[in-house]
User: Fold these one by one.
Assistant:
Number 1:
Amino acid sequence: MADAALARDQSLPRRAPMQARSRKKVEALLDATERLVVERGVEPLTTREIAEAAHVPVASLYQYFADKEAVLLALAERHMAEMDEQTLVDLEVARSAGSLSVGALVETSMRAFVKVYLRRRAFVEIYLRGRTNPALHAYGREHNRRIAATLREVALAEGLAGPDLPETAAVLAVELGDRVFQLAFEHDVEGDEAIIEEGITLLTSYLERYEAVVPGRSGRR
């Protein structure tokens, strides 16, 4: 844990952008990084190229980011926040339609992530195809734990699962889903649909063991 925390601290932005002008500059840097990653990949990218593409002096980049890895981490954080939002929106649609079940919870969540992967190809390059950045790896694990906690809360609040659904099962399911996405997008920017489908089936079968028995709906325990 100490190593992960240290890696995370080393890649934190050097100065948090407080003013609107500073926030706009940071967003420009992240937007430029996203374009360049899609065009060229992660490895050859330099901070100078990022600054030039964002029309920002390289010295200004270093006011906010310690190095290229810190920029990549910030971009991945932005993408993960978008995934969280997409997941909550899609789950609310399913809930409003009265179609939520453990299986629907799994499929809706995984399909929400796929939506973001398809429109954020840079994230596929940065996160799914490598994660050599220790801080990014640590943040990804932290994000998985948060997602697991959120989905578990939804399952409990909607009566889809009983309180015997352990936190460890939710975390394991999200980690397995993460690995499914890595495999699905490893060589295909559109994602291998067969792998995604199998992953949904796998995780649904695993979590249906904790599905609550509700009158009028078949449940599995």
Number 2:
Amino acid sequence: MTRLVGYLVRFTVILFGYAVASLAASAFLNVLFLASLGYTPEHAPTATASLYFSIPFFALFVAYFALMPACVVILVAEILGRRDWLFYALAGAVVAGVFLGLVGHSGDTTFAVTDTSAIMAVIGGGMVGGIFYWLSAGRWAGSWWKDENAPTSPGPSGS
């Protein structure tokens, strides 16, 4: 029973981490988009109001499109017990790359990203999302499957 509760807690932490990662990637992409339009810190009151709506709204799209590749990466990270930030940053870039590859070959030109700066922005958003996933959930990857009752190795004296 306690193991089931541990699994449910870990699953909840993973979902929370995925939501945080989606929001972080969305915020990164929104700020890059506003900067490309010429918004500067002097325009903060105007831009801030739009970000309250656009970041959570765009995070839904980020979460939707990244779900399947992210599930694979999260499963691999949990099984291997990867807890380093670099793994999650690179995994976020891979998830973004898989997304770009899928939309590029889907035949639907609505979501196709062809501009080099936009491709780099999406990959950067994936890396930011991966780092924020690590901050919120990835630092404890594989903790659910470490056996607390595992035998310990004897000390140097052999006793």
Number 3:
Amino acid sequence: MATTHPSHGFLAEPPPSPEVQALFDGDVADHGFVMNLTRVWAHSPSAKVALFALLGDLAQQAGLTFRQRGVLISATAGTVGDSYCSLAWGNRLATAAGDDVAHTVLRGDDDGLDAVDAALAGWARTIARDPNATTAADLEPLRRAGFDDRQIFAITAFVALRRAFSTVNDALGALPDRQLRDEAPAGVDAAVSFGRPAADEAS
């Protein structure tokens, strides 16, 4: 009988299948190891594939750069207290924009951010914190940053789906991979003081 693993979460390992193996192989190719969250999503490989295809489509519609995706995801994850995506994307944002920017976005302090980064981070936090509290005025920083209504829709849907992704991972107990914590630059490591702790052992 399959058993749960404390790093992989509260679910038992899914039975082997070509679809599950494809997810695992993709992680090894991209990261060098199988991520704990992937073992959770391996219970429905098609859901993970479809979700990330949709996220990619929305990012393209919005015209988001890699840095801008990092700002949106890090701001969202930091707001909801998701240590997993905060470490994963905080590290990527640090590489793309610098450790100081990643630290700032994760901690919810927009001082020092340019107008575009601040607009994206602010909107992501507004959505993640309380979407029912938004007003039309909340969109003005995005418009001043050059985003049109189609792009704003795509950005909003992108953030909402990333929040849903974090919710599944957190609710089912997936621990951030030890590699993510070990590789985090000082600013990211200091900023991510919330959420589930990193796994004690490498996946």
